[in-house]
Every structure is written in C-alpha cells, then in structure tokens.
Amino acid sequence: MGSESRHHDGLHFWTDLFHIEVVDEATGAPTPEGDTGILVMTPLWNNTVTPFLRWNTGDYVTYVDHGATDGPLSVFPIIRHGARTAGFFKVSGININQTDIEDFMHRQDAVSDFKIEAVETGTLDALRVSVEIRRSAVASDETDQLARSVKSTF
Q1: For 123-153, what is each residue's pLDDT tens digit?
Q2: Which of residues 86, 113, 134 is at a domain's end?
Q3: Which of 65, 86, 107 is the last residue of a domain?
Q4: Residues 82, 137 within the same domain
Q5: Does 32 or 71 have the greater pLDDT score?
Q6: Beta bridge mates, 51
Q7: What DSSP string describes 99-153?
C-alpha cells in the first residue's frame, strides 16, 4: 500500500491504488493535516473477489501531504503510524499479530521469559525482544539464533 523513501519520514501511500482518509475516531470527520486519527482506506483496484469500502484499519496515524523526499515518491502523501487499536501492531510496515509472536516465543526451548516492544527511534521503528535464557544454554548462541528466527518468521 506504500513504501518509505530514503528519508524514512513515513510511508508514502500509493494513492493511485488506494483512497485513504484519516478521520476522528469518535466523529468519523476528517482530521486536519498533521493531526492523529484513524486510517480508513478503500482500494481503487483489487485482484480478489473481496472488495471493501472505507475499511477502518485500526491504525492511529497522521497524514502529511509532502515529506522530505523530492524523488519519485514525492507525489504521494505520507502516513506516519502512531499505534494500533487491535490485536496486532506494525513494525516498519510489517503486521505482527500479538498472539502469533507470543506462540512463537513460547515454542523457543531456550527462552524462559520474554518481553516484546515496538519502539520508535527517530522516524524508524523496531522490534525489541528482551529474553531470559535458561541457565544451561549459551546465551550468545541462543540470542543470535532467536534474532535470525524472528526476522525470518516475521
């Protein structure tokens, strides 16, 4: 639905393929540029038999008409993700279902306990996974393997 520029200042939404709106959660009225609201979108083209109109994504976002880029993406508006209202979250544009990642972590034999956070560093976001490794395991080996598994799975 969009992509980042080299400036990483948000997702340039492909408005030639999707109609997007940022609306007030309570009233459904459009929010002013730069204010936080709920992302509502309608695909203008769909290759499946499940079209939808004005889908409330559950994403709290801000809309900015122009970002820092002056390249080809500059014709597209920017959406900056703020938070989720549902049981999954986005990290660098990737949807991560909370239940899926919890199930994944519980299947890791070397992990005794864990905490998962979506963190923002400037305009980039990242997934921070903190783990408690069982005593008999080599922590550096286990965390290296876990990092590779998280990246390949999610």
Answers
A1: 778 889 999 999 999 999 999 999 999 999 9
A2: 86
A3: 86
A4: no
A5: 32
A6: none
A7: HHHHHHHHT-TTEEEEEEEEEEETTEEEEEEEEEE-TTS-HHHHHHHHHHHHHHH
